[in-house]
Design a protein that fits this description.
alpha+beta; three-stranded mixed β-sheet; 17% helix; 40% strand
Length: 143
């Protein structure tokens, strides 16, 4: 049984699970019918723990991406003002992205708070540097 099938069969709120490659980065995309952010965060933790216990001999490293069915993860640059203090993913190229909290958005510039090796740093990006922007749910794993 594949990891994707195991996830769908073991979690009642999971609609689908499949591996995808986006911009040369491997993702395990899991869709859920949940709409509440806290419930999605909880499900993400449960799936992450499940994956940690699953035998992954044939799998390489990947990012777990849990989204609600029907939600649009893409954010238009003009709509960023509505996402201040939210965690976002900014694609700079097909292979490079930055994750951080959106602190400010002006006409053609955004300011992110990013974490580099445990230190918070502000990063300014211009519209010309940005290829695509996605909403992103950051999950803190309890140990």
């Amino acid at each position: 049984m594949t990891l994707e099938t195991s996830i769908v069969e073991n979690f009642e709120n999971v609609v689908s699970a499949k591996f995808e490659i986006e911009n040369n980065i491997k993702f395990l995309r899991v869709q859920t019918n949940l709409k509440d952010l806290k419930e999605i965060e909880n499900l993400t933790r449960q799936i992450s723990d499940f994956i940690d216990k699953h035998n992954l001999e044939d799998e390489t490293s990947f990012y777990l991406d849990v989204v609600s069915v029907g939600t649009d993860a893409d954010i238009n640059f003009d709509d960023l003002q509505n996402h201040i203090n939210e965690y976002i993913q900014v694609w700079l190229s097909k292979e490079d992205f930055v994750l951080g909290y959106l602190l400010d958005k002006s006409k053609d510039i955004i300011t992110l708070e990013i974490n580099i090796k445990g230190r918070k740093k502000k990063q300014i990006l211009t519209l010309q540097q940005i290829e695509k922007i996605n909403s992103y749910i950051k999950i803190k794993k309890n140990k």
